[in-house]
Design goal:
By secondary structure, the chain is mainly α. Helix content is 75%, strand content 0%. The chain is globular, with a radius of gyration of 24 Å.
């Protein structure tokens, strides 16, 4: 199969998977028992108010009618309206997605870079005292749940040392000072940096152990392959051998990187609660509890879409990173 046909096939598969996920989420959340009107009744809304709400939002329409209307709106960029806050879902969640992204993406990326380098170094020193003593601390840190690591960081750096704040993204003074400034301006302040250190460190410490273990194992495996033995026999300098070794051994990390990004969202809920970080994780919990299914559905779709598109990207760049990978025949 030519590379062009392979890319076309994978593109169609990606589009189909996105449609399938969106369709599944639509029917799944609407077939669950209970909806937002149950919350309205619990809060004391009258029967007439509930009926007017259901009619206004089309909740009494047949599912296939709701589905066609939703898909038609989705392709035009209208992903729904929050039932709880009465505003477009995208407008409601976009800053919360951004707040979570600037926490997860740098944290996971740094964890994979540092963890991959350290794991590759340990793998190249297999059987030495350095490997024996360099691996257990990483595994020990990774064994703790995310919220436990977060609490320890707060106790040490806020309770004992009293050098870092523990809650939110900005202090009151910064929020007041930049109330009328562009939305991005407070993110470039020292105050934001101080609030950012602890949650960023929690993400880094929690997710660094996996790339260390995988990279170490992959390096040990690659060192036993024929091409590496050939490099040693031909007298290739040690620095170049290590570069080739890490390049070929990094394929498992590239595969797991987007998966870890999405898995981190589950742990991010706890981090955002502990540090009171206004991100998508805490918002998702609130939306689930209030049965605000347009918000929940869109957030879950974003997570699934990221995994699908990231895996597509991994398939595309595999051949660039490792020439041993080729497109197979049907």
């Amino acid at each position: 199969m030519s590379r062009g046909r392979f890319l076309a096939k994978r593109t169609l598969q990606t589009v189909f998977m996105l449609w399938l996920v969106l369709t599944f989420l639509f029917f799944f959340f609407r077939l669950l028992p209970g909806d937002f009107t149950d919350i309205m009744v619990y809060r004391g809304a009258s029967e007439a108010t509930v009926e007017a709400f259901r009619e206004n939002w089309g909740l009494d329409d047949p599912l296939h009618v709701q589905y066609m209307r939703y898909m038609g709106n989705f392709v035009t960029g209208d992903v729904g309206t929050s039932l709880q806050f009465r505003q477009p879902v995208w407008e409601f969640v976009k800053m919360k997605i951004f707040n979570s992204f600037i926490l997860v993406a740098p944290g996971i990326t740094t964890a994979y870079l540092l963890g991959g380098i350290w794991g590759g170094f340990l793998g190249s020193k297999r059987g030495t005292r350095l490997e024996k003593w360099g691996l257990p601390p990483v595994v020990f840190l990774g064994a703790f749940p995310t919220f436990v690591t977060s609490i320890f960081l707060i106790i040490i750096f806020a309770g004992v040392l009293n050098v870092l704040p523990t809650s939110g993204m900005f202090g009151f003074a910064t929020s007041s000072q930049f109330a009328d400034a562009p939305w991005w301006r407070p993110y470039f302040t020292v105050d934001f940096g101080q609030h950012y250190i602890l949650p960023f460190s929690a993400v880094l410490l929690r997710y660094a152990y996996l790339p260390v273990l995988i990279m170490r194992t992959s390096v040990v495996e690659v060192m036993g392959q024929g091409f590496f033995f050939y490099h040693r026999m031909t007298g290739l300098p040690g620095g170049q051998r290590l570069r080739h070794l890490l390049k070929h051994a990094s394929l498992p990390l590239i595969t797991l990187y987007p998966v870890s990004m999405t898995r981190a969202i589950g742990g991010l809920v706890l981090i955002e609660i502990v540090f009171n970080w206004p991100g998508i994780g805490f918002t998702l919990v609130q939306a689930v509890l209030s049965r605000d299914f347009p918000v929940v559905q869109f957030v879950f779709f974003l997570v699934a879409a990221f995994v699908i598109i990231a895996n597509f990207g991994v398939d595309v760049i595999y051949g660039v990173i490792d020439p041993r990978v080729s497109v197979g025949e049907d």
